[in-house]
Design goal:
Radius of gyration: 31 Å
CATH topology of the largest domain: Rossmann fold
Distance between the termini: 107 Å
Helix content: 40-55%
Order of helices and strands: HHEHEEHEHEHHEEHEEHEHHHEHH
Shape: globular
Strand content: 5-15%
Length: about 325
Amino acid sequence: MMSMVNDMTRKGLIWSACLVLLGAGMLGCDKSAPASEKGVEQGAEASAEAAKENPVEEPAEKQRIVSLGGTVTEIVYALGAGDAVVAVDKSSVYPEATEELRTLDLFRTVSAEAVLSHEPTLVVATDAANPDGAFERIEKAGVKVLRLTADETVDAAKARISKLGEALGKEGAAKELLATLDAELAEAKSVAEACDKPAKALFMYARGRGTTFVAGKDTSASRMIELAGATHVPGNIEGFKPMTAEAVLEANPDTVLMTGSGLKSMGGVEGLRGVKGLSETAAVEEGRVVTMGDLELLGFGPRTGQAAAKLAKKLCLDEAQASNAAE
């Protein structure tokens, strides 16, 4: 009996040792892991190594984004994260996919309650958005808020693209977007340098005859004109100032630059011919009125380089063509 017990004990110890060895991932005894299991383990290890070498960006689609401001909204879409957007403000007019999502008031009058009603996981805006208290309430509700610079410069445009790329897990797309922007800006510079007669351009902001302003120094309009290699006038004022006949005549532009919606609100080029002061300039007399989309021209977003390259051609008078007229 004792011999039988000892024999069973020895066998039990042997199987226990085998189980320990198998549990440690070692092969032994008279049991082997099936070849299919080995293949699965090896495949998993290879996949893990590949993931380390080629990290996959976390899709923005997992987020619910509320975007406040036309420029930031355009960047979100340009980065390929448009499917994650659940609501935008009324200034977000590009791309067309935003039309059905424009349920929020302008970014200058943000309502925390209206934003939170869309159950966002991320709210993006610039520091020009107001009021600050609304963003504080959104953050207290546990929603992440990303505020970006509202500066209207090329460097600021690049910073917005980079930071949004990081926030949305779209770093690769951001790098491609920045490379395209640089290439288009280089094209604009090349066109400008080849131009023998750059225009002397005045930017006119209009929302009907009762609301007209001219752009002075250090404005989005003046910087775009300069990027295009043209001369910006008038150069003796800062910011946007109400347009007067005297100021326009003193500036004496040979080209007027406007947004398409602004020109439409004035009744087209014919409407400009009825504006005192402006009607007496060579620009209006000869129909040299150039138009571009609001965000494309003034937004300093992902299309800034494209806009500068296009504008450089339109504001070069030695290459003036019919396309220089209002579109």
